């Protein structure tokens, strides 16, 4: 399923897998996450070295034991942009005591918790959670006893406390195999693909449609076409570089486009302050999302004349335009409305210039309300 969305999938044959003899098979004993974790990273590095994988767009995921390993690896490295986890444990004490395989953890860790307390701690992601930076999606069956459902609650609560984006889906009536209701399997894949779409390409990549125009100043560091193509590999885009000495000619853009852009920004900032909205200002993704939303709103049909008028004032176009709508009238006319998203009653931040829905901060920016 991941491959259908363009992801290259590496399924490494790490230690604990069959086919390489007993030593390899039992090689995870006493280091049940550390050692296979190293094997997986070795495979990732090989793909990067061979130029097959893009180191800026790595994601990771796994179910069951692969969930344990994913949980562990996001504590060991921040190189993965997103993680999708299913039924994975993040510690071994409750896992030993509550799962339906009473021997497994005790075998893998060389004894019971009171015999090997240090090893139970060393091999458990929960004690290293403060190192996680990776947005993490979690699914589990509500009555899973192979990997107790409590492990997923523990993971989700830890990430929430640490402020890492996370989402937990518990499928009611499902055990470890998730095979009681085919819809659940479908929902699992659908939500995981959405998570990868949202966080997987996190490096400085504005969220724009397939077609767009990009204006750049003539500084040589900015007008590097190679860098540009690396950021927008799939877009049918065009790059316009302002020639040297042309700053004066683009001043009128300040009056229309750039002023409107600032207006949007200011409104979002005010909303955040007034409503004490939680957000992480250190998060680069926050800025990318916010500016992508502003770009997308200003690209909406109601602003066509507004954008055109800037080009006319700059004498780039020679046309007469009709009525000019400003963001103030299109998006910010009403304040005392409530978000139209399902089960959301937060105050509205703006009215979408595309679909006219009233949306709160969360449903506009965090949930990326884009018309691409
Ligand atoms: Zn909309
Ligand atoms: Zn909302």
TrEMBL record:
Residues 2-199 form the Peptidase S9 prolyl oligopeptidase catalytic domain. InterPro entries: AB_hydrolase_fold, Peptidase_S9_cat. GO terms for molecular function: serine-type endopeptidase activity. Coiled coil: none annotated. Keywords: Hydrolase. It comes from the Eukaryota. This is Peptidase S9 prolyl oligopeptidase catalytic domain-containing protein.
């Amino acid at each position: 399923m991941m491959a259908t969305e363009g992801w290259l999938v590496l399924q490494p044959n790490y230690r604990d897998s069959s086919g390489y003899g007993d030593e390899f098979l039992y090689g995870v004993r006493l280091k049940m996450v550390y050692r296979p974790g190293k094997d997986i990273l070795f495979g990732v590095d090989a793909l990067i070295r061979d130029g097959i994988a893009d180191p800026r767009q790595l994601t990771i995921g796994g179910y069951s034991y692969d969930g344990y390993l994913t949980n562990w690896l996001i504590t060991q490295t921040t190189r993965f942009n997103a993680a999708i986890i299913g039924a994975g444990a993040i510690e071994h004490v409750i896992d030993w005591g509550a799962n339906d395989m009473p021997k497994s953890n005790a075998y893998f860790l060389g004894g019971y918790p009171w015999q090997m307390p240090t090893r139970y701690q060393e091999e458990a992601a929960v004690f290293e959670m403060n190192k996680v930076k990776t947005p993490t999606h979690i699914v589990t069956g509500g009555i899973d006893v192979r990997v107790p459902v409590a492990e997923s609650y523990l993971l989700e609560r830890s990430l929430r406390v640490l402020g890492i984006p996370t989402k937990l889906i518990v499928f009611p009536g499902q055990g470890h195999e998730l095979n009681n209701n085919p819809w659940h399997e479908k929902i699992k894949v659908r939500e995981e693909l959405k998570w990868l779409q949202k966080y997987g390409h996190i490096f400085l990549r504005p969220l724009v449609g397939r077609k767009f125009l990009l204006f750049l100043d003539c500084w040589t560091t900015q007008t590097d076409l190679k860098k540009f193509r690396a950021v927008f590999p799939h877009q049918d885009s065009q790059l316009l570089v302002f020639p040297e000495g042309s700053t004066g000619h683009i001043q009128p853009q300040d009056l229309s486009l750039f002023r409107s852009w600032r207006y949007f920004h200011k409104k979002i900032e005010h909303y955040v302050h007034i409503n004490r909205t939680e957000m992480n200002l250190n998060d680069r993704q926050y800025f990318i999302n916010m500016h992508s939303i502003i770009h997308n709103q200003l690209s909406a049909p109601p602003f066509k004349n507004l954008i055109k008028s800037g080009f006319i004032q700059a004498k780039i176009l020679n046309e007469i335009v009709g009525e000019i709508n400003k963001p103030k009238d299109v998006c910010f006319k009403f304040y005392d409305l409530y978000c139209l998203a399902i089960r959301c009653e937060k105050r509205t931040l703006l009215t979408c210039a595309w679909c006219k829905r009233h949306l709160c901060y969360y449903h506009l920016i965090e949930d990326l309300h884009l018309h691409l």
